[in-house]
Structures
1.
Amino acid sequence: MGTTVPNDKTGEILLIDTHAHLDDPKFDEDRAELIDRAFSEAGLKSIITVGCWKAVSGFGSVMSIAESNKDIYAALGVHPHDAAETVGFTGRDPFELMREIALSNKKLVGIGETGLDYHYMHSPKNIQRELFIRHIALARELNLPLIVHSREANEETMDILEAEGVHNGVLHCFSGDMEMAKRALDLGLYISISGVVTFKKAEEMHEVVSHVPIERMLVETDSPYLAPVPKRGKRNEPSFVRYTAAMVAELKGLSEQDVARITTLNAENLFGIGPNYNGKESEKKAKIAYKIRNSLYLNITNRCSNHCTFCAKFRSYTVKGHFLRLSEEPTADELMDAIGADPASRFDEIVFCGYGEPLIRIDIVKEVGEKLKEMGCSIRIDTDGLANLYHGRNVLPELHFVDTISVSLNAPDSDAYLSIIKSPYKENAYPAILFFLREAKKHIAKVVASAVSVPGIDMEATRVVAEDELGVPFRVREYNEVG
Ligand code: SF4
């Protein structure tokens, strides 16, 4: 497992530890040093320090720790363990206190951790539930994300989140199964991955990380607890979040830089702490060349004839942390500039993809693609397979410079196809894709049929069409997974 997530000296995008307890007494002796270590050595961009109320000390030093450094933010809540301490408490109500701080201090960016913990049962269940619901109401009132803790109470935690309609928040230190993850994703919640993912025996967690879209994932330490491998058993600290990110990268087949860029953007969106948070997409400049793993993707158009029910661009134009909504379509020269010098040695492949159908601009694909081929690059096109209908001719012979073409087959027959892809070509669309795939085999070395695993579509039957009828390899893309 690598640990090469870059630090700020490289100018690369940095990680955010979305859940640390910097006020914990275990940090009393060297708090300033470990914070310095996190930012200057380990490559962290921000830390969210989570303060848990206690009857004796309220929220203690959490807000002053957040205010001591511009890159530290705070969340406040009453941990389910301490819920019973609020009963009969005669001091300042912790919810009033949270409201007052939130309204006066922008460093407070989340409510929680709150939720249910039936492991130690430090507080009775009914009191935990009551406080959980009060946190939900407060987070909604303040328009702040909810940080949810759940231990041995996953079913009930999800029932409450669903009943209360919680859409803005994160399941911190996620320890549930895929079923719980799906319920959380359906609500629109994020899933935060802790150092537990680095433990060899955490097989269920590995499965969850493999299947949950990285666009909905955060990373955290929950320090000083739960140190990841290779620091397991030691005191945890924010710097160690890099080990968790490295393991997520390995499980997702992404680079560590991909994981840093995407999870950081996710955290900034959720907590509203960066320049890119929700509602500001219109102010951003789209990337025309963007890197995922060691491939360089070219975003040459946002146009496409289809309207796919699963297309993520209808929710957000950000793919794997790259913003792709073009204000103008790039020229060939602009693309070559964005690609830069000697691409063959810098990238495994160049992919015409983006949020649109690249072959709508077939002239640009040919001009840029042929130049890149001469430079020794491997070229891939991801396409909807409808270019022949769009251009009114068989375009495949023109694509001789392409090494790989991945064609969205998406369904085993025309009716199923049209149920998820609103195509202007109607019943002509699916036969045209079958023809396109057959034709592609004559001109392009590697032809792949792909499908997005949309619920209700028979993937096995689609595989049979691809492999048995068309004789091309088949690749399923996870629903909600882009890039
Ligand atoms: S063809 Fe691609 S870009 Fe167009 S709607 Fe479908 S998934 Fe989205």
2.
Amino acid sequence: MADQVLCSACRSLNLFLFVILTSILANVAFVCAKSTIEPCSNSDSCNALLGYTLYTDLKVSEVGSLFQVDPISILTANAIDVSYPDVENHILPSQLFIKIPISCSCVDGIRKSVSTRYKTRPSDTLSSIADSIYAGLVSSDQIREANSIADPSLLDVGQTLVVPLPCTCFNGTDNSLPAIYLSYVVQPEDTLSGIAFRYSTTITDLMDVNAMGNPAIKAGDILAVPLPACASKFPSYASDFGLIVPNGSYAITASHCVQCSCGPGNLNMYCMPAPFAVSCSSMQCKNSNLMLGNVTAQQSSAGCNVTSCSYGGFVNGTILTTLSSNLQPRCPGPQQFPPLKAPPTTVIRDTNFAPAPAPQFDGSGSPAPSSGLIPSTTGSLPGLPPASGPIGSTSGMNSAPSSAFSLMNPLASIPAAFLLFILVNYIMSFSLEQSTGRTNVIQMIQMISSDS
Ligand SMILES: *[C@@H]1O[C@H](CO)[C@@H](O)[C@H](O)[C@H]1NC(C)=O
Ligand SMILES: *[C@@H]1O[C@H](CO)[C@@H](O)[C@H](O)[C@H]1NC(C)=O
Ligand SMILES: *[C@@H]1O[C@H](CO)[C@@H](O)[C@H](O)[C@H]1NC(C)=O
Ligand SMILES: *[C@@H]1O[C@H](CO)[C@@H](O)[C@H](O)[C@H]1NC(C)=O
Ligand SMILES: *[C@@H]1O[C@H](CO)[C@@H](O)[C@H](O)[C@H]1NC(C)=O
């Protein structure tokens, strides 16, 4: 995974430049929040998730309009039962942590989500929109740059702002297994081992995915967290091509007609008519009396003849179905489903929360034993099943943790503080939008050598 970690939103730190100059020498990562950037070249997109902490009580539909995401898909992504009456108007409590399903595209050579628009209200500032309303998923500098705002103090009420949001695809795989990536904003009490534990992955995997040189994280960093998922094999002309459902959750597709689930027993996507499917086209398999999701099993001397009617994608308003039969050694048990939760009304805080000690990276890829507690004062969904990661994946296949920071180390030995001042300013003047880390550093080195 060729990815890079870049500083973003550093400009406001200019004032403190001299104060932090020495810290920069020791560790550039210290000065600004990092987020993982995935370079991309093609125009395809993928499903991704945002980890969002509600800044206030919000109806499900309000969260939906904040991100321009179907409220039902937010509920199903969090395994919340959608059959509750008037569920879209259910009020989710402040500080609740939920996953928002988004589409991740390739814009100006990097992965991001650019379909979210925000209409400003009185008393909004760029930083209140970034830090509070969007809970740190975007920085005020990124909003300012995405909208070419010259003077952030002059925001018009009712102005529509593009809100660029972080996401990664990494080919829909993690260590060659299907995965969907969650953009996770690091909270003050988080440790990397705590995050790895919470999402059933390893410190090593998180470090590989995020091209981290060391396991230090700080509040405001945005990590790409791989979640094991069920991948679909719909044809490329299907409108839900590439649908991927994280373990332990559901997705709604085909104009709310079909619901697909993933887990808990295996990572085979299972689709069936959605509970509220009303005016939907036929969901019966051709030349059969089986409906979408029906499986029949017939024991014979040769084994178990399993016939199933499965979902094959949504094409031009038509639900594709596939009838298939195969011989299996044993007949399958009844289909298992991820447990559904009632719409949350309170934020369940971890009662036995204690600050985890500093992560001890032992290189073995397993979380430190002390990570048995889930550090989560920001709240989590009651009973949210942690998604499991590829256990024992101690090394990424082809990850090259060559971040801008690691490349910078040789420069730290240049004694002239003046050079460093220029250097740091130069880094800060780069926006996420304009370039990727590697070219930054190359240009930077060229600048230094032509200066001296
Ligand atoms: C991308 O994922 C597919 C399976 O989904 C895999 O066959 C392919 O090798 C992957 N490509 C890369 C570059 O990892
Ligand atoms: C087939 O699927 C439909 C819709 O999900 C369901 O109502 C019905 O009970 C299933 N029939 C069998 C035999 O599984
Ligand atoms: C399995 O059953 C289906 C229908 O029930 C039948 O069409 C198919 O020929 C059977 N396959 C085998 C290998 O017995
Ligand atoms: C969808 O419908 C349009 C026109 O109705 C047609 O041109 C197109 O080929 C159809 N696409 C598929 C995949 O069938
Ligand atoms: C999927 O989640 C369930 C719990 O909901 C867990 O038991 C299982 O191990 C997970 N599977 C994978 C492959 O992560």
